[in-house]
UniProtKB/TrEMBL annotation, chain A:
Protein name listed in UniProt: ABC transporter ATP-binding protein
Transmembrane segments: none
Alphabetized UniProt keyword annotations: ATP-binding, Nucleotide-binding
PANTHER family in the cross-refs: ABC TRANSPORTER ATP-BINDING PROTEIN, HEMIN IMPORT ATP-BINDING PROTEIN HMUV
UniProtKB/TrEMBL annotation, chain B:
Cellular compartment(s): Cell membrane
SUPFAM superfamilies linked: ABC transporter involved in vitamin B12 uptake, BtuC
Name by which UniProt lists this protein: Iron chelate uptake ABC transporter family permease subunit
Species per Swiss-Prot/TrEMBL record: Nocardioides dubius
Membrane topology: Multi-pass membrane protein
Keyword Transport: yes
TM spans (from-to): 26-52, 87-107, 119-139, 145-162, 174-194, 263-290, 302-321, 333-352
One Pfam family it belongs to: FecCD
Family (UniProt): Belongs to the binding-protein-dependent transport system permease family. FecCD subfamily.
Signal sequence segment: none
Keywords recorded for this protein, A-Z: Cell membrane, Membrane, Transmembrane, Transmembrane helix, Transport
Gene3D superfamilies in UniProt: ABC transporter involved in vitamin B12 uptake, BtuC
Length: 264, 358
């Protein structure tokens, strides 16, 4: 069994993150912490600021205030490359105008580990091969990105992130546009990555997916944190009604006992 | 930690050929020295071709004599044709082709737009305006400095306009470039209209269409110095452009300093374009077509794409310019007309091929 070696899981502490774009405050004073080696869902209505928050956390997007600690280490105090070795971001629906193969895309994940002069080592090749396999993308490694389905592209981006060997993995709607089977596959994979010690924070739209596969949940609304905690404690009918403005009943899954949300 | 080396054997070895197959790198790296040879050969053969009835041997005598390799007995006139006219022109053509091709490849990556090139973003129009101002109004600035300043101002104008439209996107950048390009072009026309009579009009037109007819050792020095001092660092540093394949945020998340990279490389392309335009005028489609053609063959990885584009651009320019000065003897065609005649259909082919792929 091949595994992508990672640094051991890291606890993520987010303290007072704010971000403005074009003078508009999109997220404000966002603070929460996420345990190491667990999958945490980031949920909230459209426009709540989930993507903005993930980008700000990664250091790649705008951010006007706040500190992020990964295992006690100040992420923004690190150099860009050091940060990119500790965390990886999988964005929503990324496309390239240029022809790249799947393997070349995944090799980009090695960027923060390489110098300007290096040509890529045998280690890099091994890590890329493992990441491809792990994300179930090894079967089409030679294909052009443009010829893949949405689900396959998503796996490639995930493999690219794994090739970065992060201890924190940030994902923006990783199950968007995937069929049910691919959704479950992706979330199970995130679960097993967390089981190996990676800390995973994924923005999700589907509350039932979050309830079924995530350990913790962070609820974001209007750019602010509404609730944080274990899934069963946070996802209550009151909170869902309050945040989304819909009527929901929270049942217990007949087989797993986890929360099952029914809307009416 | 030890897992990879211990568990690797069976599967990894089986996968090896596949790695080579989707990694054109190894094979394509061989094309680098081959193209370098082709470039040297192109220079040497192109100088033997021309209107004056010189034998290949005479051409070689002249060059050998000037390089102090041999002691040849050649008339001053015949020697001058080779040494003062053909050789600097061929060398200038090579540098211009390489510079424009590299500029195009870099801009395409930075704007994530396969259709971007120095012309599209207004750099060439800005450089032309700067150069025309110097040529016609007698400003006491060197042509190269004026062209570079024009290119840089146009670039800044394009990017500021694109930014004021909101987040910088490829399409906004291109639209802004179109506006800046048209505006600079109109001012250039205005300057020409006010200042030109008779003969100089034809000269300016020649230059605006893109021509290497004015090439001498001075232009050779400008073009090659810029290529070596700016072009080579851009080619080396341009490797980081791979990380821009999925956009600025993705590049930043991979640990790239996006704004520094963007300004360094855009500044470099402005310098390259400015210098080349000051030497040859606006030669279109080279920066657009050649990087796309090279990309079709070797893929989108810049460690190969940039040096190969430079070499292919140099070779392409040498032969197109040789055609420009010999095809319709005794009339000489501005080379810019030929690059567009050759480039536009190739460009359409690239568009059609990309459509099939997508």
């Amino acid at each position: 069994m091949t595994t992508v070696p990672t640094s051991l899981g890291a606890r993520l502490e987010v303290c007072g993150i704010g971000a403005e774009v074009g003078g508009q405050r999109l997220i404000d004073q966002v603070s929460f912490s996420v345990p190491a080696g667990a999958v945490t869902a980031l949920v909230g209505p459209n426009g709540a600021g989930k993507s903005t928050l993930l980008r700000a956390l990664s250091g790649a997007g705008p951010r006007s205030s706040g500190v992020v600690l990964l295992d006690g280490e100040d992420l923004y105090a690190l150099g860009r490359r050091d940060r990119a070795r500790r965390l990886a971001l999988v964005e929503q629906e990324v496309r390239s105008e240029f022809a790249l193969t799947v393997r070349q895309t995944v090799e980009l994940g090695r960027t923060p580990h390489q110098s300007l002069w290096s040509l890529g080592s045998a280690d890099d090749e091994t890590i890329v091969a493992q990441a491809l396999e792990r994300a179930d993308a090894a079967g089409f490694a030679h294909r052009q990105l443009g010829t893949l389905s949405g689900g396959e592209q998503q796996r490639v981006q995930l493999a690219r992130a794994l090739a970065q060997q992060p201890s924190l993995l940030l994902l923006d709607e990783p199950t968007n546009h995937l069929d049910v089977r691919a959704q479950l596959h992706t979330l199970r994979l995130l679960g097993s990555l967390a089981g190996e010690g990676m800390t995973v924070l994924a923005a999700l739209h589907d509350l039932n997916l979050a309830a079924a596969f995530c350990d913790h949940v962070v609820v974001l609304a209007d750019g602010q944190v509404r609730a944080v905690g274990p899934v069963a404690e946070v996802l209550t009918p009151e909170l869902i009604g309050d945040v989304y403005g819909v009527r929901a009943d929270v049942l217990s899954h007949p087989r797993t006992g986890r929360p099952l949300i029914a809307f009416s | 930690m030890s897992a990879p080396s211990l568990e690797r054997p069976v599967e990894q070895r089986g996968a090896r050929p596949a790695i080579l197959r989707d990694r054109p790198g190894a094979a394509a790296a061989l094309t680098l020295p081959l193209l370098l040879l082709a470039l040297v050969a192109s220079v040497l053969v192109a100088v033997t071709i021309g209107a004056a009835d010189l034998s290949v041997r005479e051409v070689w005598w002249s060059i050998g004599d000037h390089l102090n390799l041999i002691d040849a007995d050649l008339s001053v006139l015949r020697d001058g044709i080779v040494w003062e006219m053909r050789l600097p022109r061929v060398l200038t053509a090579a540098a211009v082709g390489a510079g424009l091709a590299v500029s195009g490849a870099v801009m395409q990556a930075l704007t994530r737009n396969p259709l971007a090139d120095p012309y599209l973003l207004g750099l060439s129009a800005g450089a032309s305006l700067g150069a025309v101002l110097v040529l016609l109004t007698g400003l006491a600035v060197s042509l190269t400095v004026a062209a570079f300043s024009g290119a840089m101002i146009a670039l800044l104008g394009t990017l500021m306009l694109a930014r004021s439209l909101g987040v910088i996107t490829p399409s906004r950048t291109v639209l802004a470039g179109l506006a800046v390009s048209s505006f600079a072009g109109a001012i250039t026309s205005l300057v020409i209209f006010w200042n030109t009579q008779g003969d100089s009009y034809r000269q300016i037109l020649n230059w605006l269409l893109g021509s290497l007819a004015g090439a001498d050792w001075g232009t050779t020095k400008v073009a090659w110095a810029t290529l070596l001092l700016v072009g080579i660092p851009v080619i080396v540093y341009g490797r980081v452009l791979d990380a821009f394949a999925f956009g600025d945020t993705a590049a930043a998340a991979l640990g790239i300093n996006v704004s520094r990279t963007r300004w360094l490389l855009l500044g470099g392309t402005a310098l390259l374009t400015g210098a080349m335009v000051s030497v040859s005028g606006s030669i279109g489609f080279v920066g657009l077509v050649l990087p796309n053609a090279v990309r079709l063959v070797v893929g989108s990885r810049h460690r190969l794409l940039l040096p190969l584009s430079a070499l292919v651009g140099a070779i392409f320019m040498i032969w197109v310019d040789t055609g420009a000065r010999t095809l319709f003897e005794p009339r000489e065609l501005p080379v810019g007309i030929i690059t567009v005649l050759v480039g536009a259909p190739i460009f359409v082919l690239i568009l059609l091929r990309n459509r099939e792929r997508a």
